[in-house]
Amino acid sequence: MVDFHGWSMPINYGSQINEHISVREGCGMFDVSHMTILDFKGEDVEVFIRKLIANDIYKLTEDFEGLYSAMLNDQGGVIDDLIAYKMDFGYRLVVNCATRGEDLRWISQNSKNFKVEIQERDDLSMIAIQGPKSAEVLSQCPAPIFKALELKNRQQGVYGNDMFAAKTGYTGELGIEVLLPHEQAISLWQNAIEVGAKPVGLAARDTLRLEAGMNLYGFEMDDSITPFECNMSWTVDFSDEERNFYGKEALLKSRLEKDQLELVGIMLDERAILRQGEKLYLDEEKTLEGIITSGTYSPTLKKPIGLARIPKKDINNCFAEVRGKKIFAKIGNPKFIKEGKEIFKERL
Amino acid sequence: MSTSNEVRYLASHEWGRIDEEGILTVGISEHAQDLLGDIVFVELPDLGKSLDAEEESAIVESVKAASDVYSPLSGEVIEVNEKLFDEPEIVNNSPFEDGWFFKIKLEDTSAFQDLMTEDEYNASCEE
Fold first, then answer.
1. How far apart are CA A340 and CA A199, in angstroms?
2. N or C: more exposed end of chain A, with fewer CB within 10 A?
């Protein structure tokens, strides 16, 4: 167990590699109750959320659907990444635990002139059930909303009896995240284990998200990094010109700068793992430098992989120096696995 | 002095098992593999290399971190456990038996007695 921002959480329940594989091949379950859940309601809720986050909730066409977004500061830096769900009462934002303080400060400071009510839902737990066999496991859990959820697409959700479940996750596999009162969470947890879900700790959560090419706050992104520099351009919505979200102006300016950075995936053939903060060199003279944001051993590919922020150039490989040895790395898209299959494409 | 098959330790978590011919088999302790977590790569010394006592001689990389493995004593590398290249998880599953790293022919077997006993090592882990 480890202290994670005030939460006592398991690094693993045995072997992190076995837990990782259980999510890729079977059904894994995570207690992610440390995540911060914020409910927004009130007259101005829509106007406020459209200003608060860089993606546009106008894309949400039905209730209980979720949208991945960044929340930016005025410089266009990422304060946090989150999922915004359209609820019958307004919006629900699930934000990171590590950034909770800064998020709350930013949100309350900026909501002053809006008619919105914000409630932190610390009465709710959160459980993620993920993997190709997650649907099978859920079909054997008694909660009626899981039945209704079967008909939904990815990102969509169902709400009933104090329980909210959506087809979202942090693993690249099919699965759901459930937000529910603590006592119900305990029975769901026990129930799911009885029908075959394997508990998964923080360590495998990290290798799974990394294989899926999903960002982790403090690694791929922080408040000095724009969404363009951490593979989140697709979540920034400029389509409504009238909409002035925080950071928009700075982002439009940053687009014109000539030295752009981008997040890429790297893969090694050698027996070494590049870890956060280690340098990558894009040319022999070492004039072009990048940095590893996350690095690990991929239990699915059985190879070292990583995410790196590098200058935007037409270069297809790079190297690092590990223990005085040159280690070559292939550069590709920042995604390795989706639904159990390799999707990494090396630049040619 | 009978030292055959006796095991001694370094505080840096390596064990060495000596045989009648003065050959020392080296690996890492149960405690070390537990600290490291799932081991994913092992780098072993070249055959014939002569190692000094407490010299960095191998590298073990786990999902968490890379660590050096030190040779408990001086000697020449006469065998390495090549199985670990493809199945490094053997070190997690059997750190004392199948998960050994390398064997050295000791220059001076008497130095073996200066290494930590199991009790001394266990005590050092609790500090």
1. 18
2. C
CA–CA distance, A190 with A92 (Å, rounded to integer): 26
Say if residue A25 is in the same domain as residue A174: yes
* A296 in reach of chain B (CB within 8 A): yes
- For B44, the closest chain A residue by CA position comes to A271
- pLDDT reported for residue B1: 46
To the nearest whole Å, the CA of B41 is away from the closest chain A CA by: 6
Does the beta-carbon distance from A271 to B41 stay under 8 Å? yes
Gap from B39 CA to chain A (nearest CA, Å) = 10
Which CATH number covers residue A107? 3.30.1360.120
Q: Does residue A242 form part of some domain?
A: no
Q: Which residues of B touch A16 (CB under 8 A)?
A: 37-38, 63
Residue A297 and residue B92: Cβ atoms within 8 Å?
Answer: no
Q: What is the pLDDT of residue A276?
A: 95
Q: Of the candidates A211, A233, A266, which is a domain's last residue?
A: A211
C-beta separation of B30 from B42 below 8 A: no
Q: How far apart are CA A148 and CA A315, in angstroms?
A: 48
* Separation CA A280–CA A292 (nearest Å): 7
**Neighbouring residues of B53: CB distance < 8 A, sequence distance ≥ 6:** B71, B72, B73, B74, B111
B89 reaches A (C-beta below 8 A): yes
E strands, A19-58, where?
28-31, 36-41
Scanning the structure block, which residue is given the tokens 């993606």?
A: A55
ipTM: 0.78
**Residue A265: domain span:** 258-342
Determine whether the interchain pair B37/A297 forms a contact, defined as Cβ–Cβ distance below 8 Å: no
In the prediction, which pLDDT does A144 show? 85
Give the residue ranges of chain A where pLDDT is below 70: none
| CATH number where A325 lies | 2.40.30.110
Per-residue pLDDT of A33-66, as tens digits, reads 999 999 999 999 999 999 999 999 999 999 999 9
pLDDT at site B2: 47
Low-confidence stretches of chain B (pLDDT < 70) are 1-4
- A208-218 pLDDT, tens digit per residue, is 999 999 999 99
Please give the model's pTM, rounded to 2 decimal places: 0.92
Q: Is residue A29 part of a domain?
A: yes
What pLDDT sits at residue B127? Answer: 77
Domain ranges of chain B: 7-107
- A271 and chain B in contact, CB less than 8 A: yes
B37 touching A, CB under 8 A? yes
Q: How is domain B7-107 classified at the CATH fold level?
A: OB fold (Dihydrolipoamide Acetyltransferase, E2P) (2.40.50)
Average pLDDT score over chain A: 96
